[in-house]
Design brief:
This protein is an alpha+beta fold and 128 residues long. It has helices at residues 7-20, 22-25, 28-32, 51-61, 122-126; strands at 35-42, 48-50, 70-80, 83-92, 95-106, 109-119. A hairpin with a 2-residue loop joins strand 4 (83-92) and strand 5. The model has no long low-confidence stretch (mean pLDDT 90).
Length: 128
Amino acid sequence: MTADRTAAVDAAIEAELRLLAPEVRSSPELLGQLLHPEFTEFGASGARWDRASIIKALTESTEAGARPLIASRMRGVRLADDVVHLTFDTDSNGRLAHRSSLWRRYEGEWLLWFHQGTPFSEEAAAEV
């Protein structure tokens, strides 16, 4: 494992931040360009998503001009040549979630392979 900022970690962070942008989340084409064909997510809602279902859900529910998710405390670790693990927190209109993403290099591009969101409260975070 490499804990420093490598080109791979930087590429995964850049892609993750693009993924959070409303213009990407509202476009099936742009969103699809960032998701691995075998993408899976365990959402903060408790739902399990695959690539097709998350593209449909996000693009149907994202309003034009919607406020972007606010990400904080993002850090990454290169687990292997073609795998980067990112962790960060998001705030979506007061809904807080710890996030974990695995990015894999696939056909020369960094694509989101797995994502998990876990809701948390500010009070619970302060206890740690």
